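Priority: low. Protein: MurR/RpiR family transcriptional regulator. Input follows.
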Amino acid sequence: MKSEFQSHEPDEPFLSRVQRVLTDLSPAERRLGEFLLDFPGELGSYDAQELARLCDVSKATVSRFIRRIGFESYDKAKKAVRDERATGSRAFFAHAEPEANAAALALDMREEKDNLDRTFGKLNAGELDDLARAVLSSRKVWIAGQRISFSFAHYLFWQLTKIVPEVVVFPQGGETLGEHVARIQKGDLVIAIMLRRRVAGTKRLLDAILEAGAELALISDESMARHADARWHFHCHTHSDGPQFNHAAVLALCHQIVVRATLQSGREGRERLRAVDAVNEKLLQVEW
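Result:
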């Protein structure tokens, strides 16, 4: 006789477990399952009785559901959810309770201030100035970023291209990494922005950059271990109680790099900025 409790791979993601059994559940269990698909992080925040209250089911239904998705106990399921939340999946940060969502919408900017304070409290101004000098002295500046990191890579590119003759952001749409990494060489600087959730192959990409002889500067969130071979590694705090990471500190750090490089570029940088503005005005590209 087939068991009513399905077997699961030990490392199968929590949401995959729920989705796998959803069509076979009783109405009460299905209501619980659909709730956890929307708010999986709540299992890591509440005990079984509290979760039952949120879903309007019995505690016995919660226990039965936990066994259906392959966990021996509620505590083990709770630990699995917390572990997955730590990897950076924002699905685990949504809240069902109205007061939690109200706090996330508050306009007091506490998260931004806290992330900025924690990030800049650990920054070394000398290291930032050292990176700024490398930006100006390198043969070519490469800025790497994928997924959300691509947005910040493009911000750096658009700001630095006004003062640096050779700067490239990669990969662009449809490009492979190899098309760019194969052209990186000694004397180049690579600024790699690596915010979670990082794509597979991140370590191999960094290894290839270093093997090419380039200097490597890393900008990451606080979850990434310091890279032993990177000349610079800046950690940005991105904590958020809401459903999205808070990237205020990342943008602020990028701004600091741009400002320091611009100031250090001196007359040559100022002349390049003026030339860019003059051409834009001539071509009627901007309005003031």
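The radius of gyration is 24 Å. The chain is about 50% helix and 10% strand.
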